[in-house]
Amino acid sequence: MFGLRLGSPKKSLQTLLNCGLDVPEGLPQEILSFGKKALKPLAAIMLDKKLHNAEWPKGWAPIHAMYLLGALGEPDALPYFEKLFSLDLDDGFSDFITEDGPAILAGLGPGAISGIKRLARLKSLDPFN
């Protein structure tokens, strides 16, 4: 089915932490197959400032986690994105948010629309404020 079966969220997420740009075929699908069980661990990776400043390969893990959180389609991920948007991140990660953030947030599904509207109105997230 996926080409990779590590069998547990912990093993899959450990692989994600260490793969850099060499994401094993089937790893994203396996992580997504864990559904809500993957939500908090992916959010922890996405929000970990040490990982944001890490060298290759671990430095890619927060970026992968951000995309996977959006692909989970869980509106419950929205508070984690709010935290992400409030972090002081380097320009590289911010570029991913700017370019792909709308599509990632759209992936959270219709249940997240009111929360996304609330985020859009937050003055604390306004870069010109």
Characterize the structure shown.
By secondary structure, the chain is mainly α. The model has no long low-confidence stretch (mean pLDDT 90).
**Low-pLDDT stretches:** none
Radius of gyration: 15 Å
Shape: globular
What is the average of the pLDDT values? 90
What sequence of helices (H) and strands (E) makes up the elements?
HHHHHHHH
User: Sheet with the most strands?
Assistant: none
The percent of residues in helical segments reads 55-70%
The number of E-state strands comes to: 0
Query: Helix- and strand-based class?
Result: mainly alpha
As a percent range, the share of strand residues is under 5%
Number of helices: 8
The CA-CA distance between the termini, in Å, is 48 Å
In a few lines, what is going on in this structure?
The chain has 129 residues and is mainly α.
Features:
60% helix, mainly alpha, globular, 129 residues, single chain
Topology:
Layout (H helix, E strand, L loop, with lengths): L8 H11 L7 H7 L5 H9 L1 H4 L8 H12 L5 H9 L4 H16 L6 H9 L8
Helix pairs in contact: 1-5, 3-5, 5-7
